[in-house]
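Go through this pair.

…
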Amino acid sequence: MSDLCVRCKGRLFCGLNYCPLLSKISAGKNISQKIKGNNVFGDSPPNFFVGHYGYPSVFGGPMINFSGVEVEDDPSKWYGSSIEDIVRMRSSQLMARTKLNINSSKLEEARLSTLSLKPVEMEAIVDKINYSMSFSNILQPIGPTADLKKINVTENFSIPSKVDKLLNEKISVRESISELTPFFDVYYLQKLLSGGFLGVKNKLVPTRWSITAIDKIVGDEFLKKVKDLKIAENYFIFSNTYLFNHFEILLIPGSWEFEQFEVWHPESFWNNSGSLAIEQEYEGFEGRSDYAEKEGGGYYAGRLGVIEGLKSLKIQAKAVVFREISKDYKIPVGVGEVRENVRHAFLKKPLKLSSLKDVFQELKKRLKTPLNEFTKRSFILTQKRLNDFFS
């Protein structure tokens, strides 16, 4: 069962209508800070959450900070915080939700507020507050939820001119993102897509889908530039460890290819067995036509981080990401953890090596998992491909 859990990560591949692992930690994370009465007043980060269950009729609504303490909604600004701190911070945001159709213009002002780069004050009347938290392999932890009865945006907010200009243009999602990518990070673009502000039809997009879609589209956009860069002349190893996730990123001289391994060690969140659970995904120079089902959103978050790194280094290379998840990773905090781990690896000085033999010796020292567990599964590191590197 644990192998299925590692691949599924809460996507209900088991056939149940709930995830037993996620339900267990959600039940154990009740929130101590309570909301007095049914009136909630506070800042929205801003964020408008769109669910995916029941699509195209989904639950959605604004996130409102009811703690009075400033809360960061951008995972890149959480970096260095512990899992406990992240959960505590997220627990102070209420999701005031109601039923929405993806084509609906309902709650338009609250949705428009997500275009602001600064927090926006809101006042809501809610009912049936649920104080338990929910967790996901894709999404940030979600705090209490409540049925939304009424919402007022109580302050004026501004929309970046580059975004405002696109709101009335009927162009595709990819065209819009291509125009905005030089100016905004993926965390802002995810909100634009989810809130129904990108594309010809302006449909709401479930938040979890928008996160992966933006990682994929922005990665594709940057990759066009990377493929025109010079080939790396050396091997490089970049490393980073954060939130009990250890990353080693190997760059190999050659045209773009990408491979990512996930190793869930025994007793890590999705692996309750006594043995390693390893997943692998790959794409060649021309990319892939199917979704990376085995790793899901983590694959596209890691891929984006590597492409950004290559773009910054101004080189093209084959890339292999080794992700090892330890038994101390007990609560998932979303794919932002993967993205920021990889990004921070590229902020550090890499180890530069001239031979693949030296690379393998170094990786054996850095990885807890035996190297042959990777080479026997790899498309890039197979013996036939290694011979190509020497020819």
About this structure: The chain has three domains: 31-153, 161-223, 235-390. The mean pLDDT is 92. The radius of gyration is 22 Å. Residues 235 and 358 are 9 Å apart (CA to CA).
